[in-house]
Design goal:
The protein has about 325 residues and is of the alpha/beta class. The chain contains 11 helices and 13 strands. It has a 9-stranded mixed beta sheet, with helices on both faces. The chain has a 4-stranded mixed beta sheet with strand order 3-2-6-7. β12 and β13 form a beta hairpin. The longest helix has 15 residues. The chain binds adenosine-5'-triphosphate and magnesium ion (MG). Magnesium ion binds next to α9.
Length: about 325
């Protein structure tokens, strides 16, 4: 079996969304979709679009939504040989509504769907043993115990010199801060790269600010990349910090930007880019990701990234 360079696992979902702003989910109305989604599927799809080999471990149902996900991942070159197609469950779905104040509301059907069936026996040690990079997210550690064990098994199979990235992607509304910290602790400890959004670095470390939290984790030898939406990102290593401004784009749909951004950080490090160059590259990928409706639709190709980098200097 040939192993892809980059592997991730977790929830496979399709997203079905309200086409207009301010259409709540408790009223009848129209939807658009299905769009392939799931935080870690978006991540691997972006890695593949950016030209690196990527593989995914997860579960879909034997249905059209599952086929929609598989076609997209396969079409972009992701290895889906480790995706289980379950006859007894339907593919996970997320319904999304967007509001004028910038907020989003998600209604998930995943715990009882195929996505919620991910289990340690789906993780093949031989598949991971020669991978270079594993990406995990807090959201998949929190779904249920079997998904968490699957993530931890994948972590245990990774070679000692392989890279692990961790994106918390988890909101304190779902679990208490203490629960989140203890669930994620083994992954955060092993992670070489930590990818927090606003509030997460402070939440994980107990420091008063994200900045102090990022510095603390960087002092442990991690690369910490703080995602800052349209403002870009800040990168922290032991003794060095770089702020990289974002790109000007027309934001159509913010969902998935952070996952595509994380994929770009992976690609940048696999290619040996320096901190500043990696930040600029990932900002370009995150910016392009928000320009299309649908969480995975904006994941850019290398050519699109080159064009944006060439057309816009850093702010
Ligand atoms: P999510 O969890 O919603 O996917 P996130 O909070 O993990 O997102 P963001 O900070 O929203 O991550 O986005 C990741 C990166 O994408 C940012 O650091 C930035 O580089 C880029 N980005 C996001 N939104 C925009 C935007 N409107 N304009 C330009 N760049 C953006
Ligand atoms: Mg965001």
């Amino acid at each position: 079996m040939s192993t892809p360079e980059v592997i991730s696992l977790g929830n496979m979902l399709v997203e079905v969304m309200r086409p207009e702003l301010d259409e709540p989910l408790d009223q009848p109305g129209s939807f658009v979709g299905p769009f392939p989604s799931g935080d870690t599927p978006i991540y691997v799809d972006t890695v593949a679009r950016l030209g690196h080999s990527a593989g995914f471990i997860g579960c879909v149902g034997l249905d059209d939504f599952g086929e929609c996900l598989l076609q997209r991942l396969r079409g972009d070159g992701v290895d889906v040989s480790q995706v289980q197609v379950l006859k007894e469950h339907t593919t996970g779905v997320a319904f999304v509504a967007y509001f004028r104040d910038g907020s989003r509301r998600f209604l998930y059907h995943w715990r009882h769907a195929a996505a919620g069936q991910l289990a340690p026996e789906h993780v093949d040690g031989a598949y991971l043993a020669s991978a270079k990079w594993l990406h995990l997210t807090g959201c998949n550690l929190a779904v249920n115990e079997s998904a968490r064990e699957a993530c931890l098994r994948a972590l245990a199979y990774m070679p000692a010199d392989a890279w692990v990235s961790f994106d918390p992607n988890i909101r304190p509304e779902v679990l208490s801060v203490a629960e989140i910290r203890s669930l994620c602790q083994p992954v955060l400890q092993r992670a070489n790269v930590f990818l927090p959004s606003a509030g997460e670095a402070a939440m994980f470390t107990g420091e008063a600010t994200d900045e102090a939290g990022c510095r603390r984790l960087a002092a442990e030898g991690k690369l910490v990349v703080l995602k800052q939406g349209p403002r870009g990102c800040r990168l922290f290593t032991e003794g060095r910090e770089v702020a990289v401004a974002g790109f000007h784009v027309n934001e159509v749909d913010p969902t998935g930007a952070g996952d595509s951004f994380g994929a770009a950080i992976t690609v940048a490090l696999l290619e040996g880019m320096g901190l500043e160059e990696a930040g600029r590259f990932a900002n370009a990928v995150g910016a392009l990701a928000v320009t299309r409706k649908g969480p995975m639709e904006g994941a850019p190709t290398r050519q699109q990234v080159r064009e944006l980098l060439a057309s816009q200097g850093a702010r």
